Amino acid sequence: MMQGSCMCGGVRYEYAGGFGTITICHCSDCRKAQGGAGVIAAPVEKEKFTWTQGEDLIQEYESSPGKKRAFCRACGSPLYSRRDAEPAVLRLRMGSLDSETDVTPAAHIFTLGVPPWAAIDDNLPHYDTHEPGRVSDAE
Question: Domain CENP-V/GFA spans what residues (predicted)?
């Protein structure tokens, strides 16, 4: 069982499943939403995800049609994104995890046009858009 929370601790969750392909998205929306070089996110099964505290503090913002980004209304911590077209999946923000996990990102996505200050300096594969095999939009 993995646990996570927002920065202020007002929102807490547990997750009893595995992760899909973890990516680091560098699209401009993710950079703006995270305030950094990108977002590390993993698809998780919504049915194995439980809010244990503060679900009423979660605010969703529709960043593009059918795409919602969720954050804590008290501290602003990003928690997940979701698509109306994929109701069984949340794209969990890995930085919200409190529990340690040994999973690692598989690739950098949306790397075309990454600004110099967001330089990528590891050996993971880089893709101009999504990683091969994925059809939905950015994180």
Answer: 2-118
Q: Three-state SS for 83?
A: strand
Rounded Cα gap, residues 57 and 30, in angstroms: 21
User: Quick one: tokens of 108?
Assistant: 């950098």
Going by CATH, does the domain composed of 2-118 fall within 3.40.50.720?
no
- Residue 26 vs residues 4, 19, 34, 77: alpha-carbon distances, Å: 23, 20, 10, 18
Distance of CA 69 to the CA centre of its chain: 9
Q: How many helices (H) and strands (E) does the chain have?
A: 1, 10
Could you give the 3-state DSSP secondary structure of residue 67? strand
Partners of 70 in the β-ladder: 60, 80
Residue 17 near residue 113 (C-beta atoms within 8 A): no
Rg (CA), the chain: 14
Q: pTM score, two decimals? A: 0.89
**Residues of the chain where predicted confidence (pLDDT) is lower than 70:** 134-139
Classify residue 86 as exposed, middle or buried by CB count within 10 Å of its CB (0-12, 13-18, 19+).
middle
Q: Residue 91 is which amino acid?
A: R
